[in-house]
């Protein structure tokens, strides 16, 4: 491999990581896809092979299609996953690297955990099209070339994906200062165990996801409804288990978040999804599966 070929891959690596992560939701699978993309790239850049006219287009095409091929194995893994599955959280320091990539199509903000959960309900092709078009700004024709499909088919996939996402997610994000303030208040109220105060913070249809990877004493399915969620969070056992934990604040997937630690190691990441109109909490995402906290530091 020439130094130029290595630099070309490095120049586009953050863009590739961002696209694939948004398609798959896990760092491990994303890194595996990037490794396969690198192998394909290195094979094309050996002496005597035809030159690649557009390295970025070639790399994105290989990465996207490799990620799509990996979806079947991921789906099988999810079938045996115990409890709710949430995407692997990324600190801003990691996800913001996509904003430094030398490409004008890279999005300016990370996809939130709440958005990634919605993207999980799309088909793999719909998700790929949504990520490429709505997040990274690729035209339908270019996406068609990446996926080997006609522009009309891509446009139809994009329409279905967009309608599905917009039906489940508002078009406006919450102000980060408000989200940080509500997060701090939520944790203080939960620690105090005041049921009425906690209910005042929650939207009537709030959903609580706890991804522990099958740990004991954790909900095995999402909990829905303000009363159920509030009573769970103010349960004496739940409160007692959080007394000795440290809490720091950071930015995870573009949203203010609480990073919880135990004995100096990451224990969980908590992200709230807040309705910008009512300022009520409509989603609580708690990732406590240690295998998913590799990128999180305290």
TrEMBL record:
SUPFAM superfamilies: NTF2-like, Sigma2 domain of RNA polymerase sigma factors, Sigma3 and sigma4 domains of RNA polymerase sigma factors. The keyword Transcription applies. Keywords: DNA-binding, Sigma factor, Transcription, Transcription regulation. One of its GO terms (molecular function) is sigma factor activity. Gene3D superfamilies: 1.10.1740.10, 3.10.450.50, Winged helix-like DNA-binding domain superfamily/Winged helix DNA-binding domain. Residues 10-68 form the RNA polymerase sigma-70 region domain. GO terms for biological process: DNA-templated transcription initiation. It holds the Pfam family Sigma70_r4_2. Residues 114-164 form the RNA polymerase sigma factor 70 region 4 type domain. InterPro entries: ECF_Sigma-70_Domain, NTF2-like_dom_sf, RNA_pol_sigma-70_dom, RNA_pol_sigma70_r2, RNA_pol_sigma70_r4_t2, RNA_pol_sigma_r2, RNA_pol_sigma_r3/r4-like, WH-like_DNA-bd_sf. Interacts transiently with the RNA polymerase catalytic core formed by RpoA, RpoB, RpoC and RpoZ (2 alpha, 1 beta, 1 beta' and 1 omega subunit) to form the RNA polymerase holoenzyme that can initiate transcription. NCBIfam families: sigma70-ECF. Belongs to the sigma-70 factor family. ECF subfamily. This is RNA polymerase sigma-70 factor (ECF subfamily).
């Amino acid at each position: 491999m020439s130094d130029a070929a290595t630099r070309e891959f490095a120049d586009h690596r953050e863009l590739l990581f961002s696209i694939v992560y948004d398609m798959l939701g896990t760092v491990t699978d994303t890194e595996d896809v990037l490794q396969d993309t690198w192998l394909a790239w290195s094979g094309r850049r050996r002496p005597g092979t035809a030159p690649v006219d557009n390295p970025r287009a070639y790399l994105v095409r290989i990465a996207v299609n490799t990620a799509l091929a990996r979806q079947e194995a991921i789906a099988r893994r999810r079938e045996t996953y115990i409890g709710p599955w949430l995407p692997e959280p990324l600190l801003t320091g990691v996800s913001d690297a996509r904003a430094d990539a030398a490409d004008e199509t890279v999005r300016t903000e990370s996809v939130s955990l709440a958005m990634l959960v919605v993207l999980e309900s799309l088909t793999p092709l719909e998700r790929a099209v949504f990520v490429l078009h709505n997040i990274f700004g690729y035209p339908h024709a270019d996406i068609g070339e990446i996926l080997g499909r006609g522009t009309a088919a891509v446009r139809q996939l994009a329409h279905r994906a967009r309608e599905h996402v917009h039906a489940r997610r508002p078009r406006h994000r919450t102000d980060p200062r408000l989200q940080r303030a509500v997060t701090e208040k939520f944790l203080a109220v939960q620690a105090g165990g005041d049921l009425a105060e906690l209910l005042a913070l929650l939207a009537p249809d709030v959903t609580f996801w706890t991804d522990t990877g099958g740990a004991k004493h954790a909900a095995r399915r999402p909990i829905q409804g303000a009363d159920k969620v509030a009573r769970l969070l103010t349960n004496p056992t739940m409160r007692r288990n959080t007394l000795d934990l440290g809490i720091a604040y950071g930015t995870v997937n573009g949203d203010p978040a609480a990073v919880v630690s135990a004995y100096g190691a990451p224990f969980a990441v908590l992200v709230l999804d807040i309705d910008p109109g009512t300022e009520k909490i409509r989603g609580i995402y708690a990732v406590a599966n240690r295998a998913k906290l590799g990128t999180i530091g305290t």
